Amino acid sequence: MSDQSSRKKHEMNKERLTNRQGHPVTQNQNIRTVGNRGPGTLENYDYIEKISHFDRERVPERVVHGRGAGAHGYFETYGKIGDEPSSKYTRAKLFQEKGKRTPVFVRFSTVIHGTHSPETLRDPRGFAVKFYTEDGNWDLVGNNIKIFFIRDAMKFPDMIHAFKPDPVTNIQDPERFFDFCASSPESFHMVTFIYSPWGIPANYRQMQGSGVNTYKMVNDEGEAVLVKYHWEPKQGIKNLTQKEAEGIQGQNFNHATQDLYEAIEEGNYPEWELYVQIMADGEHPELDFDPLDDTKLWPEDQFPWLPVGKMVLDRNPDDYFAEVEQSAFGTGVLVDGLDFSDDKMLQGRTFSYSDTQRHRIGANYLQLPINRANKEVNTNQEGGNMRYEVDRHSSKNPAINYEPSILGGYEEAEPYGKDHEPYVEGNLTRESIERTSNTKQAGETFRQFEEWEKAELISNLVNDLSVCDQRIQDRWMELAEEADDEYGRRLREGLEKAKNGMDDSSRGPLGNTSSSEATEKAERE
Ligand code: HEM
């Protein structure tokens, strides 16, 4: 090959920089100026396009679950729910045929702190799964812990305000957290988990997931059962002590994202098994809790975990922003054969997700590749910011963007099967559910903890509670005593000791400085 032709080939292989209009960018080092010392000119399209796009690089952060990591993979069904064919409980297609694979995208997250906050903080972890099924998308938007702080959606904004930094100082303050929780005793069980090592999973691969809220499954006859979903990691479960977390945080505040990314790059694909717990639809007056109360566990001996399939994550995103940041999950996104229950939190959540996503990403957020269904979509939606897809592929009459019509356009789909039509009656009211039982299960959870988990729980609680107003401490101790004698006694003793020799520098897990000193003290005792 001659010098000339090899140079030509080299030139042809180069991928040339262009702007978004497709114009080649021939000068990317210097803005356009009068003479080489300026001043600059305003008609400099390349510069203005470059900088003004840069100025808009961020979309609003999620109001909660700001920091996350994501991965692609698949879900494979066993075709059975426990020993029964899946069709007994649900007609959802993704569960029917043994071995059937459905592509998924998963986003793990922390909850309270912002996009680049340390991944070692004491916080629930989000576990959101988008299944791209043949019937459209199903989102299972869960957390690592199987219960939640509150049971009514009305309280969610207050709860999040209390958990976020002080609006005046912008400093994280455990007094705000415990002020809200002590005044909302239904949170006691969740706080018992969060202040134990379960509040700091070692990474995203070694934690459980749970849909938390109660859903329904519906079969061909339109009959429904209540259902809870749980993910069990095949990698095992690993949680951290406060001290271990501080050690990691001192060196790497991205450790969970890094762990997930590197495992997948190395071909060490993480897997989870999906289980369901099933209960007959109804109020279940025989139980001392309400099946629609998301602050309660469904006891495993009464409602066994039934395996339904497994999920494997085997591909990292190509681009963090396009896939992880712009992904949008919501509890309203169900497929035929899956349904809502009357769980008040679930209903409140279902409005909130798509509402915030229209604000966060825009009215056409469902046209983005990461959120788009994996099948043809035929809506009559029009316009909106950043709309770039046209659904009207119909050759019949693309101008008909309404329904019904004699002239063409899309027609209503056939129902899949018999609708589930629960009968509902009652006065419209604003009341709490009757079976609150706020502390009983927290006592059971405490008794099931191993000794090191109990010790961590007490020392973490003492760290944060000891900087709170005495009235908050008193209320919290009453709840602990109600839950379990040992729990109450150890917390009271810990708080008394802290009071007598309290060192103000040892603010705790939700506080702004290290608690390792206090943890060491608790260990010595
Ligand atoms: C994210 C609201 C309870 C799990 C969000 C977002 C909102 C929200 C507004 C941000 C979504 C976005 O910007 O895309 C609510 C409300 C709740 C509630 C109003 C109660 C009434 C829960 C509960 C769970 C949960 C009980 C656990 C089962 C998640 C997860 C995300 C999230 C995992 C992050 C999703 C992602 O990775 O993009 N929530 N939430 N939320 N929520 Fe909730």
Automatic annotation (TrEMBL):
<feature type="region of interest" description="Disordered">
    <location>
        <begin position="1"/>
        <end position="39"/>
    </location>
</feature>
<dbReference type="GO" id="GO:0042542">
    <property type="term" value="P:response to hydrogen peroxide"/>
</dbReference>
<dbReference type="Pfam" id="PF00199">
    <property type="entry name" value="Catalase"/>
</dbReference>
<dbReference type="GO" id="GO:0020037">
    <property type="term" value="F:heme binding"/>
</dbReference>
<dbReference type="InterPro" id="IPR002226">
    <property type="entry name" value="Catalase_haem_BS"/>
</dbReference>
<keyword id="KW-0560">Oxidoreductase</keyword>
<keyword id="KW-0575">Peroxidase</keyword>
<feature type="active site">
    <location>
        <position position="143"/>
    </location>
</feature>
<dbReference type="Pfam" id="PF06628">
    <property type="entry name" value="Catalase-rel"/>
</dbReference>
<feature type="binding site" description="axial binding residue">
    <location>
        <position position="353"/>
    </location>
    <ligand>
        <name>heme</name>
    </ligand>
</feature>
<dbReference type="GO" id="GO:0004096">
    <property type="term" value="F:catalase activity"/>
</dbReference>
<dbReference type="GO" id="GO:0042744">
    <property type="term" value="P:hydrogen peroxide catabolic process"/>
</dbReference>
<comment type="function">
    <text>Decomposes hydrogen peroxide into water and oxygen; serves to protect cells from the toxic effects of hydrogen peroxide.</text>
</comment>
<feature type="region of interest" description="Disordered">
    <location>
        <begin position="490"/>
        <end position="525"/>
    </location>
</feature>
<comment type="similarity">
    <text>Belongs to the catalase family.</text>
</comment>
<feature type="compositionally biased region" description="Basic and acidic residues">
    <location>
        <begin position="490"/>
        <end position="506"/>
    </location>
</feature>
<keyword id="KW-0376">Hydrogen peroxide</keyword>
<keyword id="KW-0479">Metal-binding</keyword>
<keyword id="KW-0408">Iron</keyword>
<dbReference type="InterPro" id="IPR011614">
    <property type="entry name" value="Catalase_core"/>
</dbReference>
<dbReference type="InterPro" id="IPR020835">
    <property type="entry name" value="Catalase_sf"/>
</dbReference>
<feature type="domain" description="Catalase core">
    <location>
        <begin position="18"/>
        <end position="411"/>
    </location>
</feature>
<dbReference type="InterPro" id="IPR010582">
    <property type="entry name" value="Catalase_immune_responsive"/>
</dbReference>
<feature type="active site">
    <location>
        <position position="65"/>
    </location>
</feature>
<protein>
    <recommendedName>
        <fullName>Catalase</fullName>
        <ecNumber>1.11.1.6</ecNumber>
    </recommendedName>
</protein>
<dbReference type="GO" id="GO:0005737">
    <property type="term" value="C:cytoplasm"/>
</dbReference>
<feature type="compositionally biased region" description="Polar residues">
    <location>
        <begin position="19"/>
        <end position="33"/>
    </location>
</feature>
<dbReference type="GO" id="GO:0046872">
    <property type="term" value="F:metal ion binding"/>
</dbReference>
<dbReference type="InterPro" id="IPR024711">
    <property type="entry name" value="Catalase_clade1/3"/>
</dbReference>
<dbReference type="InterPro" id="IPR018028">
    <property type="entry name" value="Catalase"/>
</dbReference>
<dbReference type="InterPro" id="IPR024708">
    <property type="entry name" value="Catalase_AS"/>
</dbReference>
<keyword id="KW-0349">Heme</keyword>
